[in-house]
């Protein structure tokens, strides 16, 4: 299974993975219809095959069609990508990443979002005791 899905994918491959993660599964035609500036149908099929060879997708047969699905959940892929971003841009520091995100909001965090963040921090403090 891929460890860091976003790090190894081209822009178009990431777009295809986004379509499949959003739908749960998709055929080449489904993917092509959902892509911006979609390449040809044969190009989409080739990219799906490449993603399968890389281990990011698997397929099942539905009559003459191949239906593609991810080999890992979106949550697993998100965690892997986030770890890579933390390491690459924040030297592995979660607090630096959070500070950068809060700073980009210019102090205008939604109260519900702020409560959720506080609850996550409180839960993490409870686990570390």
How many helices?
6
**Count of distinct strands:** 2
Nearest-angstrom radius of gyration? 19 Å
- Low-confidence residue ranges: none
Strand line-up across the major sheet: 1-2
Number of domains: 2
Describe the structure.
This protein folds into 2 domains: 5-70, Winged helix-like DNA-binding domain superfamily/Winged helix DNA-binding domain (Arc Repressor Mutant, subunit A), CATH 1.10.10; 93-129. Helix 2 packs across helix 3. The chain is 60% helix and 9% strand. The chain is elongated. The protein is mainly α and 129 residues long. It has 6 helices and 2 strands, in the order αααββααα.
Write the layout of secondary structure elements.
Blueprint: H1 11-23, H2 28-34, H3 41-53, E1 57-62, E2 65-70, H4 74-90, H5 94-104, H6 111-127
Antiparallel strand pairs: 1-2
Question: What's this model, at a glance?
Answer:
With 129 residues, the protein is mostly helical. Helix content is 60%, strand content 9%. The chain has a two-stranded antiparallel sheet with strand order 1-2.
């Amino acid at each position: 299974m891929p460890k860091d899905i976003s790090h190894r994918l081209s822009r178009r491959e990431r777009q295809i993975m986004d379509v499949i993660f959003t739908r749960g599964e998709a055929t080449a035609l489904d993917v092509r219809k959902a892509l911006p500036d979609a390449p040809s149908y044969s190009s989409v099929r080739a990219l799906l095959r490449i993603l399968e060879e890389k281990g990011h997708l698997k397929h099942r047969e539905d009559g003459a069609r191949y239906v593609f699905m991810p080999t890992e959940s979106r949550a697993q892929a998100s965690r892997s990508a986030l770890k890579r971003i933390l390491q690459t841009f924040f030297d592995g520091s979660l607090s630096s990443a959070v500070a950068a995100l809060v700073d980009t909001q210019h102090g205008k965090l939604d109260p519900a979002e702020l409560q959720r963040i506080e609850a996550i921090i409180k839960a993490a403090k409870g686990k570390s005791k």
